[in-house]
Design brief:
The protein is of the alpha/beta class. Helix content is about 35%, strand content about 15%. A 7-stranded mixed β-sheet has the order 2-10-9-8-5-3-4. Strands 11-12-14 form a 3-stranded antiparallel β-sheet. Strand 3, helix 4 and strand 4 form a beta-alpha-beta unit. It is globular and about 70 Å long.
Length: about 375
């Protein structure tokens, strides 16, 4: 059976690979002879434990995660981790944050509730259109960690070179770039990602944390579910986890392995983003908003000469079957999110439509 599917350029929840969706569909009513859907089965059952174990093993293989890192599947989005990270990791009550867009800014505001936050660098002066030079940051010796949002979903900037943390642990929000390219996990103390952009359905975070950073001497008032030691000790199942998201993410991990892993995925993502950026660089009507050196492969914001024309373009693209191209309400304009599951053909089709719109506008 074929379904009419649009090219969905949403910033999240976003497209998932069609082969994965088809496999999920085929297992919906009866998962591997269990007689039930994954949505119905007990999280304490042997069959679901196998799903969790396979998902973690496949992710470890994909990212080459060292043995001294825990992998946790935690309910809630990345926003919950804005609080959980300082609560769990602030030993000295002090952390350094780099402000590069809307999501790092929100993380900063939340972390201030739990300790001293030093904003060591910011690109707010140019509306977050670049990543500041972080090769020689002023980092206090007693800072507990350095925090970045490695790809800013709203503003479309991404880090090309990680900051020099001067020996301090690096915490990275990779929500909108997770599994889009190879990653040396050992460069980080913690990586986390809301899965609804590149991996699965909304409602869960994958957290990869170096084991020695997981503390037990925590504020007794801290909500127990937000403690990383509790999640670790209970295999991400202190309570009923997001079983469906874990299952779907596991399918995507296997899919990524089947196409050649993160190196192959990165190559596809580079080619796909180039289609759109090449167009933006040659267009008279549409312009990218990010300095070329810091452009994201995942989120591509662009504008016309006016908000009114932006709105016309959004309306026309939606009518033509290219959905969710409206820019975030905080910045306006347009944005094409081209995560792993967006095929290159989607980027090419969008560019074809925009070229035609530009050529015929006003005629």
């Amino acid at each position: 059976m074929k379904y009419d599917r649009v090219y969905n350029f949403s910033a999240g929840p976003a497209m998932m690979p069609e082969p994965v969706l088809e496999e999920i569909r085929d297992e919906m009513l009866n998962y591997r002879g269990s007689g039930m859907s994954v949505m119905e089965m007990s999280h304490r059952s042997a069959v679901f434990q196998q799903i969790v174990d396979e998902a973690e093993a496949d992710l470890r293989e994909l990212m080459n995660i060292p043995d001294n890192y825990e992998v946790l599947f935690i309910q809630g989005g990345a926003t919950l981790q804005f609080a959980a990270i300082p609560w769990n990791l602030m030993k000295n009550g002090k952390a350094v944050y780099i402000e590069t867009g809307a999501w790092s800014k929100k993380a900063i505001q939340e972390a201030k509730k739990y300790g001293e936050v030093i904003v060591a660098a910011s690109s707010a002066d140019k509306n977050y259109s670049y990543i500041p030079d972080c090769s020689d940051l002023d980092i206090p010796e007693d800072a507990d960690y350095v925090y970045i949002c490695e790809n800013e979903t709203i503003h479309g900037v991404t880090w090309q070179t990680l900051p020099n943390t001067k020996g301090h642990i690096l915490v990275s929000d990779q929500s909108s770039m997770f599994l889009s390219q190879p990653c040396n996990v050992s460069d980080y103390g913690m990586i986390y990602a809301g899965v609804q952009k590149n991996v699965g359905p909304a409602g869960m975070v994958v957290a990869i944390i170096r084991k020695d950073l997981i503390r037990e001497d925590l504020d007794p008032k801290m909500p127990i579910y937000m403690r990383y030691d509790i999640q670790r000790d209970n295999g991400s199942m202190y309570n009923t986890p997001n079983c469906w998201a874990i299952y779907c993410c596991g399918k995507v991990f296997k899919y990524l392995k089947s196409i050649g892993g993160l190196e192959a995925m990165h190559k596809i993502n580079v080619e796909k983003a180039k289609v759109i950026y090449d167009f933006l660089d040659s267009s008279e009507m549409f312009k990218g908003t990010v300095e070329p050196e810091f452009r994201s492969l995942m989120n591509i914001p662009f504008v016309t000469e006016s908000a009114e024309l932006d709105a016309e373009v959004v309306k026309a693209t939606k009518a033509a079957g290219y959905d969710n191209l409206k820019g975030h309400k905080s910045v306006g304009g347009l944005r094409a999110s081209v995560y792993n599951a967006m095929p290159k053909e989607g980027a090419e089709a969008l560019v074809g439509f925009l070229k035609e719109f530009e050529a015929n506008y006003g005629k």
